[in-house]
Amino acid sequence: MSAQTPHRNDPLEALTMGTGLRLEDLVDREALQEVCKSFFGLFGIPVRIFNEDGQLLGDAVQEQALCQYLQTLRDGRAACGATVTAVKSASPGSSGDATHPCFTGSLYRIVALDYDGRRLGRVIIGPFLPVEVKEVPRSLLRIDAGVEPEKARELMPKMPRARTETVGRIAKHMQAVLDLILFSGHRALLTSQMHLASVRESYRELQEQNQKLTESYEKLKELDRLKSNFLATVSHELRTPLTSILGYSEMLQEGIGGPLTAEQQDFVTTIRDKGEQLLALIRSLLDQSKIESGTMSLKMADVAIGTVVSDVLSTLLPAAKRKGVALTAEIAPRIPSFRGDPERLRQVFLNLAENALKFTPGGGRVTLVAATDTADAGGTSDPDDDIGYVLFASKPTGVLVRVEDTGIGIPHTERSKIFDAFYQVDGSSTREHGGTGLGLSIVKRLVEMHGGTIAVDANTATVPPAGRVGGDVAPPSGRGRGSVFTVRFPLPKR
Ligand SMILES: Nc1ncnc2c1ncn2[C@@H]1O[C@H](COP(=O)(O)OP(=O)(O)OP(=O)(O)O)[C@@H](O)[C@H]1O
Ligand SMILES: [Mg+2]
């Protein structure tokens, strides 16, 4: 709230403080106009309602013929103006009621509109001619030298006539009606104020909560940054001694340090295998922290996806053979090349194929498929693009690689979570398969950095594993049928 006269800009604020209550805040002008109209309809006496500042809020008036006549005379006009000014500024005393005479013999009744001890405005009733005035008064004849007594006598009876006491009673009645309207208006105003106050309070609370949430978010972001830094530093520091361990164990294996017994060879092989595993984990951690900090960059070149996939195939063939899994690749001819980082893409498909191999038991199958992604000739929005392809039915829109396996499958409910860092479907410490759950999260980010997408589905082409009968019907959990990971890279529009 501002320090200086706050209610000037905010009437509701002013009302809460008990000041600045205005007639037009409590009753709308239409209601006041309606009151004036019905009063005039009943009694034929003009009525006007003003607020405390003298502003007209409602009226029902018919200009009197006598007044119109007097307006045509110079002194008459001046006298009329003076009377009107006097009536408007007349202040009913504490009784709330006053009468002001006019030189025509008519009267104005002024009734105060008070509410809750405050004066909000006034009602002016008149001019009306008291019944006892029979003759044209001298004051009227003398007001202007041009007044024709005949004319005045003719016009005076056209003035609305009423008993002064009757007008007094009508005025009291009108005061009571307006008081009632003011009361209900005030009540409505208070209710809406209370509503407003409670909305304001809720808004304030909401802002407070928002502030707290923003602070926690900032703290979490800072913690996340610290964690990423920590990961990057630790991984880096681990890699240096590990390279030595691997180098020396390789030298031992090759007999550079002297001949080894069969048992020693076994031990050294284990040291090397575990060392390699550790190195892969450290690489994943480093990649993850690079991705999180946004410092991962791609070395762009023209990528022939067929070459990348064959390379992954030959890398994994020995391991597949050892496990008894049939690993094959189906590479379509003439797949368009596209811009990408061949080494990072190799990492993507190596990871997907390693997963497929890891989660497919002996006797199963893993297939790598590379093909051109096409769209129907009529399916694109740009008709000019399609002219050449209408004849050939489809046009290349991208490149796709699928990694299909007949392994344990991924339950439907888990499919969106496996791309989260460190998430593993079987997260137990006694899990059968190794790994840290970083592979897919890195894969997804690398694919997205190439403008591509990755999706996972159940392998619907597979028959149920041995022992299961019932044909090619998917088990409800989605498990046991194997998985298909599909990666798509868009080709630039020509
Ligand atoms: N082909 C698949 N078949 C069945 N489950 C899979 C397959 N690929 C991934 N998953 C599930 O998704 C999880 C996450 O995979 P991700 O590659 O991120 O981690 P990981 O292989 O466990 O560990 P890392 O790749 O870091 O060595 C896996 O733990 C596994 O539960
Ligand atoms: Mg993995």
Structure characterization notes:
By secondary structure, this protein is of the alpha+beta class. Among the domains are: 15-162, Beta-Lactamase, CATH 3.30.450; 301-490, Heat Shock Protein 90 (2-Layer Sandwich). The chain is 47% helix and 18% strand. It is built from 13 helices and 13 strands. The chain has helices at 11-16, 23-26, 29-43, 65-71, 74-89, 138-142, 149-155, 164-253, 262-293, 305-323, 342-358, 387-390, 439-449; strands spanning 47-51, 56-60, 97-101, 107-115, 118-130, 161-162, 301-303, 326-331, 338-340, 365-376, 394-405, 453-458, 483-490. The strands form three sheets. Strands 1, 2, 3, 4, 5 and 6 form a six-stranded mixed sheet that branches. A five-stranded mixed sheet has the order 8-10-11-13-12. A two-stranded antiparallel sheet has the order 7-9. A hairpin with a 2-residue loop joins strand 4 (107-115) and strand 5 (118-130). It binds adenosine-5'-triphosphate and magnesium ion. Magnesium ion (MG) binds at residues 351, 354-355, 435, 439.
